[in-house]
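Chapter review: from sequence to fold.
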Amino acid sequence: MKIVSLFSGCGGLDLGLIQAGHEIIWANDIFADAVETYRNNIASHVDDKDIREIPSSDIPDCDVIVGGFPCQGFSMANMKRDVEDIRNKLYRQMVRVIKDKKPKFFIGENVKGMASLGKGEVLKKIIKDFEKAGYDVRWHVVNAADYGVPQSRMRLIIFGVRKDIAIDEVFFPPETTHTDPEKAKRLKKKPWLTIGRALSHFPEPEDGSDIPNHEHSKYKLRFNGHLGHRRIDPNKPAPTVTGRGDEKGGVVVLHHPDNHRRMSAREVAATQSFPDSFVFEGTKTSAYRQIANAVPPLLGRALGIMLVENEKNISDTESMKEAV
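The token string follows.
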């Protein structure tokens, strides 16, 4: 299917959708380094203007609209969460484009903290706005580790199907492929990918200077259990990679699973399931931020497979109607 991507960042979600067989025909983000990363790794169809200044008529028609609308105002890691945070209102731009372009489906992605903001009233409002745009809407919290990402990353997925579409069964949430090792055999799924295994092929940064983005923060390690100061268990998926803001904000870098230094940007990218060939533009700090704010490509791939299943259900339903 042809997909328009809003708030695309460096392209983690889009990369996964492409891996699932879809075509991204237009993307948009205002973070300059992320846009350059996107252009160099995915395609030149990314627009860097503020979405609030782009009329819907300038956006191509499509089958699907996706968007990881800015989440920092919703994040549990943001201790100053506020219902009125201006970043929380950018989802309305996504609603506006969806209402005007009328794709078959849309996918919204955000942090799980959005579900509890304003005692749940914010999510209710967001769902209602998407419904008013003409969509049947569902939401679910998923863990990226359940899709092969070596990281425990809880994300809220919002999925909409245009109300006039005849679909026999809505396939949502995407089917998981991995699970807790203790349950894997019984559930016939793969065990979670551990962070120790995911990073095992990387040499130390000083021995791998030819590897793109393999630079690490020299910040002194502390182990107090707080965000960015946790001891990492190499035999489990990593804790959530956290961006903590846009290009003007700070970043929080996880410890390496050997707990002797912080991860390099390349290692954080692997923690997010980016391929080693995906190169991030800008400074080391910018690379950390781009990676942390991205949707893990493997989660994006699972969402892309989910879209395929739903498109198939539409085709099957329409074929049955034609036969009758």
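Two observations follow directly from the output. The chain is about 30% helix and 15% strand. The mean pLDDT is 90.
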